[in-house]
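ok, trying the design again with the full structure, not the truncated one.
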């Protein structure tokens, strides 16, 4: 039986492990290897996440298999929009419905907090993610922003709940 629950500090190492594996699997060839395969910052990332788990939720089914992070969107044109900041599922569990469950959970949280619109950003070259979110009813809304740690453009998708 799976459970989506708020993340706790003891989940931080597993969150970083999943983030590292899934990011490498999804973005190889799109993001420079020196960014994807830099293991020197893992301890720093664990400490940073453990110290601020606001908006983090994990999908647990015996072990943690995926996670999301969400918060109100900081974009000036999206004041009343809830943003899915990240969604990662461990690569060997992708395609099993975990990502969809996490997105539906995110949408429920947004609605429960009074938001009627949600958004997320996707790396423009990430066609797999773009297809996934389109299938769940998300549409490009025209906003975009440059990646901060590498060359790339993130495009925004949104959905009215």
């Amino acid at each position: 039986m799976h459970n989506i629950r708020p993340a706790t500090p003891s989940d931080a190492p597993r969150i970083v492990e999943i983030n590292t594996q899934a990011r490498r699997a999804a973005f190889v060839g799109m993001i420079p290897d020196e960014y994807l395969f830099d293991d020197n910052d893992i301890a720093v990332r664990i400490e940073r996440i453990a110290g601020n788990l606001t908006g983090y939720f994990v999908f647990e089914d015996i072990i943690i298999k995926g996670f999301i992070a969400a918060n109100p969107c900081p974009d000036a044109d999206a004041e009343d929009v809830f943003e899915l900041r990240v969604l990662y599922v461990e690569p060997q569990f992708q395609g099993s419905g975990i990502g969809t469950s996490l997105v539906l959970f995110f949408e429920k949280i947004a609605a429960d907090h009074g938001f009627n619109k949600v958004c997320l950003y996707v790396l423009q070259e990430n066609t797999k993610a773009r297809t996934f979110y389109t299938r769940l009813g998300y549409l490009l809304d025209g906003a975009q922003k440059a990646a901060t740690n590498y060359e790339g453009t993130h495009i925004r998708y949104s959905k009215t709940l």
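Keeping the full-length input from now on. Strands lie at 3-6, 56-61, 63-72, 82-89, 117-123, 139-146, 153-160.
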